[in-house]
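Dataset card, provenance and construction

Sequences and ligand SMILES were collected as paired inputs. For each pair, a complete structure of the chain with the small molecule in place was predicted and serialized as structure tokens. The example below shows a pair involving guanosine-5'-triphosphate. Curators did not alter the output after generation; any descriptive sentences attached to a record were derived from the structure itself.
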Amino acid sequence: MVLENLSSSLKDVFKKISGSSYIDKETIKEVSKDIQRALLKADVNVKLVISLTNRLQERAATEKPPAGMSEQDFILKIIYEELLSILGEESRIELKPQTIMLVGLYGNGKTTTAGKLARFFIKKGLSVGLIAADVHRPGAYEQLEQISKQVNSLFYGEKNEKDPVKIIKNGLDRLGDAKVKIIDTSGRDSLDDELIDEIKRIKNEIKPDEVLYVVDATLGQQVGPQAKVLNDAVSISGVIITKMDGTGKGGGALSAVAEIKSPVYFIGTGEHMEDFEVFNPRKFLSRLLGMGDIDALMEAV
Amino acid sequence: ENISNKSENQESLFIKRDEFDERVQEILIESDVSFESAERIVEMLKNREKKLSRKISYDDIKSNLRSVLYDVLSQAKSDLDLLNVDKKPYVILFIGINGTGKTTTIGKIASYLKNNNKKVVIAAGDTFRAGAIEQISIIGEKTGTEVIKHDFGSDPASVAYDAIEHARARRIDYVLIDSAGRMQTNKNLLSEMKKIKRVARPDLTLLVLDGMIGNDAIEQAKTFMNEINFDGVVLTKLDTDARGGAVISVAMEIKKPIMFVGVGQGLNDIMRFDPDWYLDKIFSS
Ligand SMILES: Nc1nc2c(ncn2[C@@H]2O[C@H](COP(=O)(O)OP(=O)(O)OP(=O)(O)O)[C@@H](O)[C@H]2O)c(=O)[nH]1
Ligand SMILES: Nc1nc2c(ncn2[C@@H]2O[C@H](COP(=O)(O)OP(=O)(O)OP(=O)(O)O)[C@@H](O)[C@H]2O)c(=O)[nH]1
Ligand SMILES: [Mg+2]
Ligand SMILES: [Mg+2]
């Protein structure tokens, strides 16, 4: 029985409707409330939660469960599908020569992730050069320089230059041999116009192949709106979710993905350079919802 | 949208009790108050309004909500006056998960103390993260504060010990101990922190939380409280559009005072936590 695999707040939801073979509108409404609760506790943005459960009610009212599927399994399937459609199927970053720029909020893990990405590409046989374009945070240059030594990549930075565009242009030039160039940038937020202008200028003058958004899994409601502003400024092409080794459920990060509509490539699972995994949307969702092995679950469904 | 916008739009509306509760809860959750705390606040609000009629205006709610939150937050105020402490050196340890703003906050507090003619030394207790010793050294230079540091990878407890000894020998007033970010799920790093605390015997331990944090605030605060214990919280990055609802959940569920808030990357961007300032921030744009 599928429901026995649920180990979560959602378990209670389905307890309510299990047993009844027929679900009326009222019950679906009530179940929606419980699903909202589970999603809100996982930090999914309020507006996104409401639109998800609206979809759920719409679909539950118009679609019929496939033959042999109970109503409650059908509701589970719908909400799972809706969430999965935000995340998309598993997608891989291309293994080719390219320039990648990392952007994101203060302290979310950009510089560390630059190192992890470098290590990833190097292991795949592509040489990497790291470029230090964070001209604001004290010690950002040294941090990336030391990381580049840890992962055996090339490194370029200019300690006293205050214009990130200049540094990056020189860096792309000097690291010409490296197949993959990864640019680390300062942390920034949507209210800081100067920093938003700065990143726009970098993007327009450098035209990186990928702009990756690095986002912390412990953060909450404002991550979605934050991501929207940054996406409007530099059109983000992919996402990396960090600090998945903690207890954060990643609902803020999910809301960012819903805004950006780009694939999530990796997750960070620790401070060390090897704490880095290819993103698995199903695994992510089972953690977000507090459910066990959701894959097995959906197969059973 | 913030609380006042929501209510202003519907100022003249009178709506049903239930919808009202839902709306209030939604607004609290949108401000990153934890789900449970938001539920409890709605209960508190209901109790306060028991005497009112079934239908109630947004204005009533707004002022009642503000006063409920004020009560919660005023319990979380701290009387500590950092400039008038009765111990020398006064040792402050900063803890928290990765990237929340510990090192930056140390710079701000060092700067505040120096501006008030106090003698300060910083212990470069993050010996793990790349560039951490350089970061704190630059902050030391900028604030004119001496930084006691050992090599990359060395024992952070002994850095703290040396800094305290140094302060004793030179009659320095304050020792600020930086520490590497650590997830509350990492047992090894928690026991490392226990050792630092045992050796340093801080007079004040501050948990630094990211202002954008969601429901995980309570998870982090609980574990750090049980494993390490701390005396108060610093909430950073409130210059962003973060509503910082963690201050409310921490006040309600952890019952620890909120000591400072970070409001920017600069050395002066720090404030004592003030419930009125905070409520103004979330009630108006
Ligand atoms: N536990 C854990 N820590 C991480 C992870 N990714 C990064 N960190 C840590 O998070 C902290 C911040 O990482 P940084 O790489 O400096 O973040 P950043 O985005 O470059 O920060 P700014 O440049 O200041 O905006 C550091 O202590 C990292 O070691 C992760 O996946 N798990
Ligand atoms: N806008 C803003 N940024 C802040 C604030 N406090 C810290 N930051 C930024 O957040 C990032 C991380 O700050 P750090 O002080 O390095 O954080 P940390 O907790 O020491 O990080 P680890 O040592 O890596 O765990 C930096 O980019 C800081 O400039 C604040 O109040 N407002
Ligand atoms: Mg950085
Ligand atoms: Mg630090």
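Derived descriptions for this record:
Residues B 102-103, 126, 132, 178 surround magnesium ion (ligand 4) (CB under 6 Å).
Residues 1-8 of chain A have pLDDT under 50 and may be disordered.
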